[in-house]
Each structure stands twice: as structure tokens, then as C-alpha cells.
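I'll show an entry:

:::
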Amino acid sequence: MELVQHPREVRVLHGHQDAQNLFLEAYNAGRLPHAWLITGPQGIGKATLAHRIARFLLSRVENDDAETGQGGLFGEEEAPKIDVTSLDVDLDSAAIQRAILGNHGGLFTLEVEQGGASKEIRVDDVRGLEHSLALSSAESSWRVVIIDSADEMNRNAANALLKSLEEPPERVVFLLVSHCPGRLLPTIRSRCRVLRLMPLQNEVEEVLISGGISPLDVGGADIQFAILAAQGAPGRALRLHHAQAESYYQKIVTLLQDLPSLQVRAVQKFSEEIAGDAVRWDVAMYMLRFLLYRTVLQAAAGGKNIKNIAKDNTELVTGEFALISQLLEHYSVEKISDIWEKTGTVTIQVSAVNMDKKLAFSTVISEFTA
């Protein structure tokens, strides 16, 4: 399976110009908030934007005085202020290359190590950050802290971070990446300026190509499925494509085709298949939610009949329309929405407390027969 680039290694951010402009407006006004909460769906580019902002600030060491309109050393007339219009920096400079490699003295990152034993950001991680910030950094005039994602902080870590946000060190900017900002402490949210990223439209294919997909392959059915299922989040589209999400969507549709009855042995077999691998588990749960999302959309369009469903849509996998029709025939929209919500909650619980994946999937599927 191909690996997705770490956000700090991504050299180009496609789209999200409104969010970038909001940050630049604050910077140019000389009133840069010390903490930013970058929100939006997972895979939409939040961490990539955070690292782009970090590189911008870390590059200010040479040009900060001119851009903020400060006068010269000998009292000359104040230089005219020059507004910065882009977050672009020289990616090949030595300092920025260190930032891309993750060893710049002014860049601090808190994140859960992929494949590590811990599934959360702990209080010791935040205290270690505080100790590092207490040391002076001569490498740049700004220091930047990226927390990716803030949703993965446990309660003690969040409380420890709150102290730093309440009394921020001078010229330190905190960038908190959050997929579910509602899970954060209200006191943390209140101390951050929000940058909300919206789903992309035409840029998704560009991101896939920059992520290593051949332009000739972008039009393929499997990649187009990933783009549609990702709902405007290019990072998610890459992950879904690499994980062969379309095959899991087909398996889920087949698994549920007899609803409101279920083949218990088939459910057990599928839960065993996905429980042993974190990627398979995440993809399967996401595709189940995607099916429920497609079903609710169809209900909103006012059609239970399979002919009406087929009229304005394209069936993504064999049997999808028939299953959607069955779901709308046997369950209310409220019930389907409740299962969608339950699936999201269980997915978060599995990630946070290492809940048994096989049991978790069976618990969600049992909602159809409850």
C-alpha cells in the first residue's frame, strides 16, 4: 500500500484561499492571535495548512521589520508597511528544509505516533512542550506549535495546554488541528481564532495528482469512487483509494442486503476481517457511514422507489440502489440518522480507548435489528 505524505512534507496546498487570507489579514494588521483552531472534515488539508502557516512564520526572521513597518536602527523615517499577500515561502531555503524535515528549532509538533502504543496526547507531552518553549530559540523570530490533532488530547493534557493558551509565551503561535471541535474544552475553543476549512470542489483531482496519482488514472472508476466518497476532502480520497475502499463498500452493501434480517455468520466473518487492521477498520466504518449518508440524501430527495433513486443518481456498487430502497422502506430517516451517529461515536471510542473492533462493529450492525 502506498504511503500518504506527512502534512509537513506537502509542498503545495490546493484551495482554502479564504482561510489563508483570513490569517494574512490578521498578520498584516499586526494583531496576530496567539492561537488558531483549524477545523473541517478529516483529510481536507487542515494539517497541511497548519504547516504552511508555520513555514510562513518561521521565514519571517529576515523580513519581519520591513513588513510590520518598523523604522531603521538610526531613527530614519518609518518605512511604509508592505502587506504580505501570500503564505508562499522559499521551500528550498535551509531553514524551511529543516521545518519540512521536522527538526527546525522554532517548530514544535504534538501528535499521536502512528503505530505507537499510545492513542492519545498525554499531559507529559504537553509539559514537555512547555519546557521546550521555556528555552529561547534564536533560529527565527516566531515559534510555532502544531497540535495534530487536538481531539486526541486526554483531559489532563487539555487542561495543561489551557494554561499555555491563557498565558502564551511571547511570539509563539499555537495551531490546533481539530476534526471534531465540539470535543474540545469550551475554554480552549474560546481562546482560539477559528479557521474553518470547507470541502473542496475542483481541486480534489489536483491534490490526488500531486499525491502521486497519474493524471491518466484520475478518471478511473476506482479513483472517481474515492473522490465522491471523500466528499471534498482530498487527503481522505487518497487514503480511500489506497485502501481499496470501493471493495469494502461493496462488501457492506452485500452484508446488509437482507435487511431487516441479517446473516449472523456473515457479520461475524466481516467483523473478523476488519478487526485485525486499523486501516481496514477505519475504511469499513467510514463506508458504512457513507451508505447511511447516501440513504438520508435520497430520503431528502423524496424517493423510496428504486426507479426514482436510479433516475438522478449513479449506482456506485452492485445492489446499492436496492439496499437504499430497503432501508427507506423499513426504517425511518430518524433511525438511519441515529445509526449514522452511533457509528461515528463508536469509531471515536475505538480510537480513544482501544475498544475491541470486532465487538464494536457487531454493536453498530445490531442497531439495524434493535
